From TrEMBL:
SUPFAM superfamilies: DNA-glycosylase (SSF48150)
Stated name of the protein: DNA-3-methyladenine glycosylase 1
Annotated source species: Hydrogenophaga pseudoflava
EC number: 3.2.2.20
Keywords in alphabetical order: Glycosidase, Hydrolase, Metal-binding, Zinc
Pfam families per the UniProt record, alphabetical: Adenine_glyco
GO MF annotation terms: DNA-3-methyladenine glycosylase activity; metal ion binding
Amino acid sequence: MTAPPQTDATDELPRCRWCNGAPEFPAYHDAEWGFPVADDRRLFEKVCLEAFQSGLSWRTILSKREHFRRAFLGFDFDRVAAFGPADVERLLQDEGIVRHRGKIEAVIRNAAGAQALVKEFGSLGAYFWRFEPDPATLAAPQTASTHAASVAMAKDLKKRGWVFVGPTTAYAFIQAMGLVNDHELGCHARAKVAAARKTFKPPMARPA
């Protein structure tokens, strides 16, 4: 049985248990996590930040998010794709972000991959929402770290040259960007996300 969600002492609203992990989490949880997203920059930002989180905590990444946005030009992948070796070296000196050469280079490489996806599908949203899982196949909220959809997404992205996006990273992206409603049963945000998903129209790929 899934344990009941935890409550924030300041407002007594029931929330997912992970919200107790840091004071920054409730606001992110209430306003962003799990709500469906179609905006290409936000999708690219999230897949990049999930890659940076690999081996680290989400609190570390969330606390540095504004620095990441500044460093990667608002995650405008058209501009990031033009970064070169000098930009990599500059970013390795930026104390505001995670200074990991492989992950920095991955953002640049994946930015070029994002351009290719937009050219093929019309938008990143149209590509990523192809991997929306069938709700009937989902485990109980927050009891799984991967899903067949995240495995398929990671495999397809790897085939297209993307890096640092494995099945677990892909599933965290799916959860956060609202391709599933993985808020715990009883969490006050679960109904809000369900309502948002009900009116959300996933982006469609351009006709072939």
